[in-house]
Amino acid sequence: MVLLRTHVGDVIRESRKDQGRTLRDVSASARVSLGYLSEVERGEKEASSELLAAICEALELPLSRLFAEVSTRYASLEHESLATPVALPVRPRVEAQAPAA
Amino acid sequence: MVLLRTHVGDVIRESRKDQGRTLRDVSASARVSLGYLSEVERGEKEASSELLAAICEALELPLSRLFAEVSTRYASLEHESLATPVALPVRPRVEAQAPAA
Fold this sequence. Notes:
The structure is a homodimer.
Chain A (H helix, E strand, L loop, with lengths): L3 H15 L4 H8 L3 H8 L7 H10 L4 H21 L18
């Protein structure tokens, strides 16, 4: 089970790295502390809705795109779990016993 | 600016109502307090990633679907804001002065 904050942190970090920006730059632009942003990126802290909006604005990452990406990541996990073989409750096969010699 | 917890609460409440289920039923199934679920639905409380997963499981609402819906709602708002007329910085028109009689 992957937690929401893990996916959100991953997408935010990837967006920041794609832009070649530092934690310091984005945290200053979003007016959040560098430590807070770092914890959010690592999925260690739940971002409040307000601070998540500020971080996404600093990254020019529309919230629609962030959650489309989160949705896609969940969907691929759900697809995987659907594809996992399920053990059926069948009785163990009883081996035919060889007649006593 | 619509906050994430507002959209999440709306989608959860709509999903519960569509299923004709009560706050009591879903909160018991998700093992969260009825008051907590009610606050989450009204967008008054940030659900932790863990409790959000429990609530969605109780509703049989895949997280991929919840966030696809959240994404769609944000996209429609972003579309609206793009469609809002923007005031251009043009100089006010100087009326031609009538010649003095």
